[in-house]
Amino acid sequence: MMIKRNSGLPKAGLFLVMMVAIILAAAWAVRSWLDDTIRTEVAAALLMPSNNLPPENNLFFALLGAASRGDRSIVARGQALFEKYRAAGNKKHSALIPFEERLVWEGELAVLCPIQRDREARSCLLRLLNDPVAVRLLVSQNEQALDRYLQLHAFSKFENPIEPSLYADQLPWQYLIQAMRLNLARILIGVDISDAHERARMIQSWRSDLDFWKNLLGEMDDSLVGKMVAARAMTEHFQFAGDLLRHPLVNTRDARFIEHSVQAFSEDALSMQDAMLGEFRLLNSLISALEDPNVGVDRLMSADKGIASLEQTEQAPSSWLSRAVMPFFFLPNNTRHLIHDQIMSVMDRRKNNSCPITGVQATAPRPEPGFFSMLKNPIGQVLGNIAAPDYGSYFDRLCDLEGIRRVLLMHARVKANHLDETQVAGFVQNQSAALYDPYTDQPMRWSAAPQGITFSARSKETKESLPWPL
To answer: Cα dist. 239→278, 410, 465 in Å?
Structure first.
C-alpha cells in the first residue's frame, strides 16, 4: 500500500517540469516576437562615419600632442599617444594622455577671464589692461603651451577615431580652453592700445583666433562635448570683443572690423544633428554591453561598480541565474528604438526653428511608460528614461551663442555710428529679423537699468552676463 501511494509522485514531478518548460518556451517565443529586428533607420544611425582624413591633417592628433610633453611635432606625439591608448583598450582604464605625460601649466591661471562674470562686475579686459604684470609673467611661463596652441590654427579638419564608449577618455578640452584664454590675454597686453595700427593688429589676432573656434564649432560633427566646448570659447571671444568696444580708444574703424568679424554662423556650426547621432552611438555602447551574456542583472544593479564595470570583460562572469533572467527583462533592439525616438523627437522640434519660441518646451515631455511597455522591456524602459539626458539644454547653449553674436553685432554698429543712449532703443527696435531675439522672433530689448541690449537667454552663464553695457 505504501508503494502504491508514492507511485504518483514521479508523474507529478515530471508534469511540473513539463509545465515549467512550456511556460519558459512560451515566454521566450513571446519575447522573440516582441523584440523585432532593428529598424532600418536605427541601424543606419548606428553606422560610424568614415575616417579618411590623414593624421597629419587631423586636429585630433595635433590636439593630443599639443596637450602633452615631448619634443617631437604635435602630430607625431598625438599619433604615438593614440596608438598606446588603442593598444591598451578600455578594459585597462587607459587615458589618452597619461598623467605623467600631460602638459603642466605654470603660474596662476586665475588672473585670466572666465566666461562667468556678473554684469555689474568691472570689465575683465580693463582689469588686465590696468594690471598687465601678472599676465605678462603668466605668458612668459607658458610660452611653449601658447606656441603649441597657435600651431593648432593650421588645422581646419577634425575626425575622432575613437569608437564611442561610455568609458572612453575625453580629449584635453581643458587645455584648449585655458590656452585660448591665455592667448586672448597675450593679444591684449602685447600692444599699445593707444596706437591705432597696433590696436588693429590686436583685433586681427582676435579675429584669427575667433575663426579657428568658429571652424571647430562646425567640425564637431559627432561630438556633443566638443561642440559645447567650442560654443563656450566663442562666447568668451564675443565677450572679449564686447569689452573692447567699450574702451574709449576704440574707434569707428575698429568697430567696423569687429562688426564684419561676427557675421552669421554656417548651418553646420549651429546644427546638432550629427552631434545627437554621436550621442546615440555613445548610449548604444551601454546597450551592447548589456547584451553580453557575461553581463547580468546582478552586475547592472551593482551600484558600487557603476556603468564602467559593464565594459570590463576581465571581471568574473555574472551569475547563471542573472544570465538566465536577463533576456526576459531586457530587449536590446527595443531599447535602441526607445532612445533613438527620444533623440529624434528633440531633433523634430528643432528642425524648423533651432531656438524655440519662449514658453515652448525645448524637449518633448517623456511619456510615462505604460504597463505593457514595462512588462515587455522593464530594464530597457528604465535605461531609456535615465540614460539619455535632457538634450534641450544643449540646444539652448547654441541659441544663446547666436543671441550673443547678434548683441555684439548691434554693439559694434552702435559704436561705429556714434549713437548715444537716447538713440539706442529705437535702433534696436528697427533692426531686421536677422538680429531679432532668437527665442521670441521679436526685436531684442533695450534695458535702461542696467543699460544694455538683452534677449531671452536660457543658460545661467548668459543670463548673468546680460545686458551688456555699452
So the answer is: 30, 13, 9
- Tell me which residue of 153, 133, 115, 409 sits closest to 265, measured CA to CA: 409
CA distance 258 to 261: 5
User: Which residues, 6 or more positions from 415, have their beta carbon under 8 angstroms from its beta carbon?
Assistant: 245, 250, 252, 255, 470
Please return the burial class of 2, using the count of CB atoms within 10 Å of its CB with bins 0-12, 13-18 and 19+. exposed
Query: Given this model, what pLDDT does residue 427 score?
Result: 93
Question: Exposed, middle or buried: residue 5 (CB in 10 Å: 0-12, 13-18, 19+)?
Answer: exposed
Sign of CA dihedral 293, 297, 303, 307: positive
pLDDT at 375: 65
Residue stretches of the chain with pLDDT short of 70: 1-9, 11, 29-36, 90-93, 114-123, 292-328, 349-375, 387-390
> What pLDDT is stored for residue 358 in this prediction?
44
Can you tell me the distance from the alpha carbon of 264 to that of 270, in angstroms, rounded to the nearest whole number?
A: 10
Residue 297 Cα distances to 194, 303, 306, 319, angstroms? 68, 12, 13, 9
SS3 of the chain: the string is: CHHHHHCCHHHHHHHHHHHHHHHHHHHHHHHHHHCCCCCHHHHHHCCCCCCCCCHHHEHHHHHHHHCECCCCCHHHHHHHHHHHHHHHCHHHCCCCCCHHHECCCCCCHHHCCCCCCCCCCCCHHHHHHHCCHHHHHHHHHCHHHHHHHHHHHHCCECCCCCCCCCCCCCCCHHHHHHHHHHHHHHHHHCCCCCCHHHHHHHHHHHHHHHHHHHHHHHHCCCCHHHHHHHHHHHHHHHHHHHHHHCCCCCCHHHHHHHHHHCCCCCHHHHCCHHHHHHHHHHHHHHHHHHHCCCCCHHHHCCCCCCHHHHHCCCCCCCCHHHHHHHHHHCCHHHHHHHHHHHHHHHHHHHCCCCCCCCCCCCCCCCCCCCHHHHHHCHHHHHHHHHCCCCCHHHHHHHHHHHHHHHHHHHHHHHHHCCCCHHHHHHHHHCCCHHHCCCCCCCCCEEEECCEEEECCCCCHHHHHHCCECC
d(CA 184, CA 202): 9
| Joined grid coordinates for residue 166 | 561610455
pLDDT at 314: 43
| Whole-number pLDDT of residue 149 | 95
Closest-CA residue to 60 (of 48, 78, 85): 78
Question: 312 has which bridge partners?
Answer: none
Distances (CA, A) of 76 to 44, 70, 155: 34, 10, 14
CB atoms within 10 A of CB 38: 16
Tally the residues of the chain. 470
